Amino acid sequence: MSPPRVVDSVAALRAQIRDWRRDGLSVAMVPTMGALHDGHISLVEIALEKADRCVVSIFVNPTQFAPSEDLDKYPRQLARDLDRLAEAGAQLVFTPDVAEIYPTGFATTISVGGPAAGLESDFRPTFFDGVATVVAKLFLQALPDCAVFGEKDYQQLCVVRQLCRDLDLPVEIIGAPTVRDAHGLAMSSRNAYLGEAELKVARQLNVILRRAAAALAAGADEGSATAEASLALAKAGFDKVDYVAARESMTLAPWRRDRAARLLAAAWLGKTRLIDNVEVPST
Length: 283
Prior knowledge:
This protein is of the alpha/beta class. The chain has helices spanning 10-22, 38-50, 78-88, 98-101, 120-123, 127-142, 154-166, 196-202, 204-217, 222-236; strands at 5-7, 27-32, 53-58, 92-94, 146-150, 172-176, 240-248, 261-269, 272-280. Strands 1-4-3-2-5-6 form a 6-stranded parallel beta sheet, with helices on both faces. A 3-stranded antiparallel beta sheet has the order 7-8-9. Strand 8 and strand 9 form a beta hairpin. Helix 9 packs antiparallel against helix 10. It is globular and about 55 Å long.
């Protein structure tokens, strides 16, 4: 498989996509922060099923990190990422630096509500504004026909869909199933921070969530089921549980039993924060 073309400027990105459009080709985008794993590669594979060409962006977005978070420590491994993207068949990789995305004097931020309210926002209040701003910029820079996001970051997926609806961005948002290891742990770049003992604990997150989702489907009270799941995570070895919550699948509004639901959670192992979610089986 030939290596993808790598560009680091908006002008070069647009020129390549303009050439594709001239040839009548459709374009899919996969926005990432790099440190690619099998979950990211699955997004590229879906993108190539949906469109003739796939552009992957690799940009560690500073505006979605709070001052206390791991921006400087976030894993960066561009050479390895490019090898993986070549194997996957991506044709174009956009690797801008911070100045290309946020030039001197940049002063505009998108503020999001709806599905951005609560859950992650209770603990990372500026996160989704940063995500929405950079995603909107990437979409306007590349103007893809569609973009693929993983369901592992389920609230983010809902926020991006809302963003496109509210701002009339002509990009189809495709949600891709979470890719997990053989033990059920959701693939994440932050898994690289975990030692062997912590990995054993981390792999209980999905097990406990699925057990709680099954209990909800069987008629358990939401408050009791989520409280029991939080207690089970603590007993499994998690240091802190930020939330375990059931929400309506499409809007992330408080769940009503007659609506499709997702069970979402965030918990800490040492200095590493893990998130996951599962569908509540329909009754």
